[in-house]
Amino acid sequence: MNRITKILLIFKIFISSACGNKTEKFVIGVWVIDKLYYNNENVRPYFFPNSIRFKKDTCLLPIQNINQLHTKKEYGIWNIFEKNNKEYLKISTENPFFIYVYEITKIAKDCNNYGCLYRMTLKSDSTLIEWSHPEW
To answer: Contact 50/32 with Cβ under 8 angstroms?
Structure first.
């Protein structure tokens, strides 16, 4: 391999690792749960709060009752990966409701006269989650 090819390869690796996953950067923030279905049943009213917060590698999850506040069920570790040209979000947690691998089926930006709203839809075998957050 000649010197220029080596330099270009190193530059490409550096840029790829520095930029990170575009979807991963998009996910970071607070998302309001618009729809939450489990086995085709609306379960959104049974969770507190009505949002999920993604930080760099961790997330703060909604819980089903106040006794779970500040417990391991309220926290998770997440990552995004690609398989067969599809993107997936995996949440590892002790919260049995959110411990799934979700296919990211929709990412959109909806704008009107009042501003823009980002939307994302996730699906697993038994769960459908639609959430949104405003453009800051």
So the answer is: yes
**Hey, is 45 helix, strand or coil?**
helix
Q: Which two tokens stand for residue 132?
A: 């949104």
Phi, psi (5° rounding) for residue 79?
-155, 160
Omega within 30 of 0 (cis) for the link into 49: yes
Give tens-digit pLDDT for 55-99: 999 999 998 876 776 778 899 999 999 999 999 999 999 988 898
The answer for residues whose C-beta is within 8 angstroms of residue 41's C-beta and 6 or more apart is: none
Q: Specify the pTM.
A: 0.76
Helices (H), the chain: 3-19, 22-27
Tell me the two tokens of residue 112. Answer: 């009107």
